[in-house]
From TrEMBL:
This is Aspartate-semialdehyde dehydrogenase. Catalyzes the NADPH-dependent formation of L-aspartate-semialdehyde (L-ASA) by the reductive dephosphorylation of L-aspartyl-4-phosphate. Substrate binds at Q164, R245. Pathway: Amino-acid biosynthesis; L-methionine biosynthesis via de novo pathway; L-homoserine from L-aspartate: step 2/3; Amino-acid biosynthesis; L-threonine biosynthesis; L-threonine from L-aspartate: step 2/5; Amino-acid biosynthesis; L-lysine biosynthesis via DAP pathway; (S)-tetrahydrodipicolinate from L-aspartate: step 2/4. It is an enzyme of class 1 (oxidoreductase). Its EC number is 1.2.1.11. The lineage of its organism: Bacteria, Bacillati, Actinomycetota, Actinomycetes, Kitasatosporales. InterPro entries: Asp_semialdehyde_DH (IPR012080), Asp_semialdehyde_DH_beta (IPR005986), NAD(P)-bd_dom_sf (IPR036291), Semialdehyde_DH_NAD-bd (IPR000534), Semialdhyde_DH_dimer_dom (IPR012280). Phosphate binds at R106.
């Protein structure tokens, strides 16, 4: 039970509470016992009036258009980039600290882009913009393994291929994959649904996530480059990505090739990664062990496997990463940001 009468506990709003990230935020707030004085669930007018149980109490979903941000101390935004662009300024103007899950403010110089395990130090003071941005779901697990490697051996280049799950496109993405799979099983020649994924995702592999940029890379690929550089504080980091959607319901995977300045010893690399907070290395002893989206283990960890130092180039190694994009890649990171902000007293004096 996390509802408390303590006047120092924050009043929290979840914008996009009915979505895939929003419902994962609710789960995590309950699981982690994040204390709150009030909890407001907010979504579009389509969901207004829906009843959602949280911590033994029923909460009615409110419409964003009618919501008064003056009621809250922390607002988590997980309702899409255009919604954040339209409504975050109103929330900040009313004094709420915004933790934004969209890409709207990630590259804003006055907005810290935070993975608490990596760059918590940027949260040494409340953000000038009133917003703390949560990175992209593929970037978070990547920087969680790159930072210790950079500190120990120095990084020359990173080449990533992602294998991204349907849940990256929210509840509708999951539904479209499941529906498309059923349709294709009944009739392999049928037209498959393709609103969220085009071409359709069922029984397919699609090397195109988000919009095409002038560079020829997609926005998802561009986000991984720009956000990794900002979080790691390495503006010239040579990192490049191919982002691929695969017919998996949840959890993103990544194949990561890292070239370092100094030669790498596999045992030392495995030991280093194993000591990172909330990172599990699967092939520390059994080289045939590896994580998959269906069976990785602790849902709040970054799972690492297939750790291979190149035999002909000890300055290069491969990693396979698996992490729950809704938790590690979105909601968990956002809740951990809130926990840090509260521990640092960002709201003391600000809690009204
Ligand atoms: N899925 C991921 O792995 C992931 C990871 C990192 C970041 N994100 C980001 O998080 C955001 C949400 O993603 P999601 O996967 O949770 O999507 P989703 O399942 O489609 O949920 C979208 C949520 O936003 C609400 N919403 C949509 N339009 C709205 C409007 N005009 N006004 C108020 N509420 C509105 C929806 O409310 P209704 O139910 O009323 O329509 C729903 O609660 C996106 O910006 C996404 O890029 C997602």
């Amino acid at each position: 039970m996390t509802l408390v009468t303590d006047p120092t506990a924050p009043r929290i709003a979840l914008i996009g509470a009915t979505g895939a990230v929003g419902s994962t935020l609710i789960e995590l707030i309950e699981e982690r016992g994040l204390r709150y004085r009030e909890l407001y669930l907010v979504a579009s007018s389509r969901s207004a009036g829906r009843q959602i149980p949280v911590g033994g109490q029923t909460h009615e979903v409110r419409s964003l258009e009618d919501f008064d941000f003056g009621l809250v101390d922390i607002a988590f935004f997980s309702a899409g980039t255009s919604v954040s662009r339209a409504w975050v300024p109103a929330a900040v103007a009313k004094g709420a600290l915004v933790i934004d899950n969209t890409r709207a403010y990630r590259m804003d110089p006055d907005t810290p882009l935070v993975v608490p395990q990596i760059n918590y130090a940027v949260l040494d003071r409340p953000p000038g913009s009133g917003v703390i941005a949560n990175p992209n779901c593929s970037t978070i697990p990547l920087v969680r393994v790159l930072q210790p490697v950079e500190r120990r051996w120095g990084i020359r280049q990173v080449v990533v291929s992602t294998y991204q799950a349907a849940s990256g496109q929210g509840h509708q993405g999951i539904e479209e994959l499941l529906e498309g799979t059923e349709v294709a099983l009944r009739d392999p020649d049928a037209d498959l649904p393709s609103e969220r994924f085009s071409p359709p995702l069922a029984f397919n592999v699609v090397p195109f996530v988000d919009e095409l940029q002038d560079s020829g890379f997609t926005l998802e690929e561009q986000k991984m480059v720009q956000e990794s550089r900002k979080i790691l504080g390495l503006p010239d980091l040579d990192v490049t990505a191919t982002c691929v959607r695969v017919p998996v319901v949840n959890s993103h995977s990544e194949a990561v090739w890292v070239q370092t300045q100094e030669p790498v010893d596999r045992a030392e690399l495995v030991g280093l990664l194993s000591r990172q907070t909330e990172v599990t290395v699967h092939d520390a002893e059994n080289r045939a062990a590896f994580p998959t989206p269906l069976k990785a283990g602790h849902p709040d960890h970054v799972h690492v496997g297939r750790v291979r130092v190149s035999p002909h180039n000890p300055r290069g190694f491969w990693l396979w990463l698996v992490s729950d994009n809704l938790r590690v890649g979105a909601a968990l990171n956002a809740v951990q940001i809130a926990e840090y902000a509260l521990a640092r007293g960002f709201l003391s004096g600000g809690v009204r």
